[in-house]
Write a structure and sequence with these properties.
six-stranded mixed β-sheet, binds adenosine-5'-diphosphate, globular, 10 helices, binds magnesium ion, 288 residues, alpha/beta
């Protein structure tokens, strides 16, 4: 049984007068396996958040249906095993971070005996231990995302749904969230994530789907989606022009074509993290 199944999902919103309809999700069928980290991608307004809200039973589809571990998403039981970080979380701002996470833990009927330990544990996972006693209204956007993530994990759900968890988070914070998602995957959790950080998505997702105007454009594993057919890249130190020509000629004698020669480059986020010394802090200190 799949963790999540969308079957021919359609969502129309009424916009304006005279019953004008806007189609946010257009006949979407998609299945997410248990234990999979699945990336839902697409430009703004392509229907990602709407799809997620249907999964969570927050809105009803116009047509089609959605199941979570086999249970229709309209039923309350479907939500028991789901953790959710909304796109723009709205939290009770007069609470401090620990009280906030504790509040959500109690909402999901966690037993009080084990509750405080669990609350502190997930706050540690997201690197918010030091700020846990500060009021939520003093938090930066990135800190709100982190405490929201703690809130989504506190009841140890089997499915974690993260709608743009890295929005407004600095590179070290994004790396910490990446490490945390990989940790959840190692625990066998299923993760559904939307993000604009495509490099991050590429690093963590088993499969991705791309939506455009509510329609599923493309789905597959990351290598399937980004692979350039049956081609390889070779990484060597810089060749003098003459040797490069020799190599090209040699390849031609074997029936191969040298298609591209370009300077090798790393990724800007990796350089940033290495130079600001935050890679380790992000990856090891914050995540047990
Ligand atoms: N409550 C709503 N009422 C009317 N239109 C909506 C509502 N929610 C979303 N939409 C529209 O549905 C489309 C998809 O939105 P959304 O799912 O938020 O996209 P994404 O998360 O991919 O950016 C957009 O055109 C948006 O304006
Ligand atoms: Mg969205």
């Amino acid at each position: 049984m799949a963790a999540v199944e969308f079957r021919d999902l359609v969502k129309d919103f009424a916009v304006g007068l005279r019953g004008v309809k806007q189609r946010a999700v257009d006949h979407l069928s998609l299945s997410i396996a248990r234990g999979e980290v699945f990336g839902l991608l697409g430009p703004n307004g392509s229907g990602k958040s709407t799809t997620i809200k249907i999964l969570l039973g927050l809105i009803r589809p116009t047509l089609g249906d959605c199941t979570v571990f086999g249970v229709p998403s309209s039923r309350v039981e479907a939500r028991l095993d789901v953790g959710y970080l909304p796109e723009s979380p709205y939290f009770y701002r007069h609470l401090n971070g620990r009280e906030l996470v504790r509040f959500y833990a109690r909402l999901s009927s966690q037993k009080s005996a084990a509750l405080d330990g669990r609350v502190d544990e997930v706050i540690g996972w997201v690197g918010m231990s030091e700020a846990a006693d500060r009021r939520v209204d003093t938090y930066s956007k990135g800190m709100l995302q982190r405490i929201g993530l703690a809130q989504a994990l506190v009841h140890d759900p089997r499915l974690v749904v993260l709608d743009e968890p890295t929005a407004g988070v600095d590179p070290a914070g994004a790396a910490a969230i990446t490490a945390l998602i990989l940790k959840l995957k190692a625990q066998g959790k299923t993760v559904l994530i939307t993000s604009h950080l495509l490099a991050q998505i590429e690093e963590i997702c088993d499969r991705v789907a791309i939506l455009d105007r509510g329609r599923l454009i493309l789905t597959g594993t990351v290598p399937e989606v980004v692979g350039l057919g049956n081609r390889q890249s070779l990484l060597v130190d810089r060749l003098p022009a003459g040797e490069l020509e020799e190599l090209r000629a040699w390849l031609a004698t074997r029936g191969h074509t040298l298609e591209a020669v370009q300077a090798a480059r790393g990724r800007l986020d990796q350089v940033f993290l290495a130079r600001t010394g935050q890679r380790e802090a992000a990856a090891t200190e914050r995540i047990p």
